[in-house]
Amino acid sequence: MKEFGRFDDGRKEFAIDDPATPQPWINYIGNTRLTAFISQQAGGLAWHIEPQTRRLTRYYWLPLPQDRPGFYVYVKNNKTGSVWNPHFAPTCKALEKYECRHGLGYTRIAGELDDIKVEVTYFIPPDEDVMVWSVTAENKSSREASLTLTSYVEFGLLDFQRENFWCYLKNHIGFTYEPKSSWIKYDYHVFEAPFTPAIFFTSSQKPTGFDCSRNAFCGKNGNLDMPESVSSGKMKSSELPSGGHGCGALSIDMKIPAGTKKETAYFLGVADNWGKAAALRKKITGRGYVAEAFSSLQKTWGRKIGTFQVSSGDAHMDRMVNIWNPLNCQVTLERTRDISTDHLGFDGMRFRDTMQDALAVTSFDAKFAAERIKLVLSYQHSDGSGNFSFYPYSAEKKVNVHPERCDNTVWPIFTIDNLIKETGDLSFMDETVPYRDKGEATVYGHILNGLKYIWNRRGKTGLPSLYDADWNDGLAVFRDPKAESVMLGMQLLHAVKMFREYSLKKGRKSDAEWCRKAADEMNSILNSDKVWDGKWYRRLLLSNGMKLGSSSRKQGKIYLEPQVWAVISGAGDFKGRGKIAMDSVRKYLNTANGLMIHSPPYTGIPNPEDPPIGNAPGTGENGAIFCHAVCWAVIAECILGRGDYAYEYYRKNLPAFMAEKLGQEFWEREPYVFTSTIVGPAAGKSFGKPGISWLTGTASWMYIAATQYILGVKPDFDGLAIRPCLPKSIKNAAVTRIFRGKKYDIDLHSKHI
Ligand code: GLC
């Protein structure tokens, strides 16, 4: 099967040797403020803080060619006249050698043609808001080489949505070149904008030519495939002081003696004002800066992944746990669901998603996780409600309360419990966080208020009301706000049981008593005949009496979520129902490519009993393998002590394993990060195709499933609890865990379990 790339575990990189991957295979680089994604063809986008209103560069999602533009270096060989890119696009000139290596916080792309090798390393250091393009040009021939390197980055309007009002706003920006500082200045003076950052593009050595105008750079009828300024060897010295389509094109002439290398660098920087920008420019163009900044980046990532390292003999599991899953978790917490090659950048943060994304990051960057947790809580309302999404960096701090998700405020306790058990610092519960509308509460108060909010909005059976949907967005198609959610009932049970421990620790007896009563009541409702279907738990009780996820239905007979949460919450301890339910999952939902979210999928036609549904059968919430929910199945099987089942479901969700099994061409997406879904069998030929990559709750939950359940190294109040649930195929595993400042070497032997 055709391979485009492979893992290089020793270097903690994924190496791609064919630039024509089925879809852009991207990496994220950034420091939580300045961030970019970049593909194997150097296509990509950079933004500051958030991508909706502070988008520094341009990227097009919908038109072909895909994955344009990006962070380009054109190479002109002045002896042969040939023009090419080490990252292949956009000239697409065939290279003799090509390699892209995505690593932790950097991407390095090297191309070679006619004995000239040009390598570009892109990264954003932890401390400065600058994207570094570190370039090395090597002359492998026996004669002196003469090259002209030219950068290209395209500037749009920072506010992505308002870019469509281009005709009115194009004069609110300006692009000029300042020879003294050798920088292109992007001056942003959109008067309604709450911020007018200073953006610049510069190089480590004095450029020999520049263009600030995209159109001038490309030439009449030209495009980025062969820009006139590059092919002619004559940069136009274009500027756009009163607006237009700006770009950062700086050319550098180089004579490279035979058999030697030369280094140079480009920088895309951003600061609050031009004074700060000048200071930043001075720092980054100083001697030795690039090497120091890169080493500081490596140390930062070394610390993060050093928290948990495993050697289990399963290469896919090891590389995910040790390298790629932490990266995926970090990116997901930073971005929630805002921008990727799937997301165009409109979504803000989401109450429930960001809270879940913080779950795993608590273990390797507790500080950042805590910041995000508090940020989410500060968007809770004083009546206890959460929201669908919020935009903390927008001028008006926008919030979307619609569509109304009933599960928002059940999530905080799960993540905060994990954080406190990681740090051992119970005082986090006492920190004060404001409500969005009025007043404030401690973290403890926020959680309790949120749980009571769900409790107080229960339906006639006593289960939480659905409103638009619970965790499963797809349930919105039933348009039944008064339906009752079994999944949320189980989650609430789990939440109050967990929260009760904190009430007891804090001596809050009446809260502890409320939790106990709520848990008892919920447990008995969940095990009543209204919810238990005989072999599994139902999913929704609709207000018209119809029961979803029941054997009496033709479609949507069984759902995954209530079965897994029955086990996690302990509701399924009753008469061994959790195990029975998970056996039904295995029987009815397991496929060659993972566990479906429900079965059979809804068609809507020709069965009028069923609702019309957005997702085609086998996709998304309509019968796909929904990876986020599969993580809970892995956890549930570990709780039941069935390591082989847990591991099977885990592996079927591992992108590396699936890309290998189905072939990288078919798999299409990056083999190193999780995807949201895998198309289910009902979709015929697409069965096994992955959905959205990178930004998915799978990243966080799968890290928890692998580290705390399969490998079983789980932080607890008084230390690390070790309860592995290994499959038969793993006899031994060695784990290194840094926990509360101490290093633990843990040997797991399956014969001892
Ligand atoms: C997507 C959404 C998440 C939702 C899930 C299930 O992952 O980002 O909010 O809970 O789908 O519908």
Give me the secondary-structure topology.
Blueprint: E1 5-8, E2 13-16, E3 27-30, E4 34-38, E5 44-48, E6 72-77, E7 83-84, E8 97-103, E9 106-113, E10 116-123, E11 130-139, E12 145-152, H1 166-169, E13 173-178, E14 183-188, E15 198-203, E16 209-213, H2 214-218, H3 228-231, E17 246-256, E18 261-271, H4 274-284, H5 289-306, E19 308-311, H6 315-335, H7 351-364, H8 366-377, E20 389-390, E21 399-400, H9 412-423, E22 432-434, E23 440-442, H10 443-455, E24 484-485, H11 486-505, H12 509-526, E25 540-541, E26 547-548, E27 558-559, H13 560-569, H14 577-588, E28 590-591, E29 594-595, E30 598-599, E31 625-626, H15 627-639, H16 643-653, H17 655-662, H18 664-667, E32 677-678, H19 698-710, E33 713-716, E34 719-722, E35 732-739, E36 742-749
Helix pairs in contact: 6-7, 6-19, 7-8, 7-9, 7-19, 8-9, 10-11, 11-12, 11-13, 13-14, 13-15, 15-16, 15-19, 16-19
Alpha-D-glucopyranose (GLC) binds next to loops.
Could you explain how this protein is built, in words?
The chain has a ten-stranded antiparallel beta sheet. The chain is α+β, with helices and mostly antiparallel strands and about 750 residues long. The longest helix has 21 residues, at about 315-335. The radius of gyration is 27 Å and the shape is globular. Among the domains are: about 5-305, Beta-galactosidase, Chain A, domain 5 (Distorted Sandwich), CATH 2.70.98.40; about 335-455, no CATH class. The protein binds alpha-D-glucopyranose. Alpha-D-glucopyranose binds near residues 353 and 474.
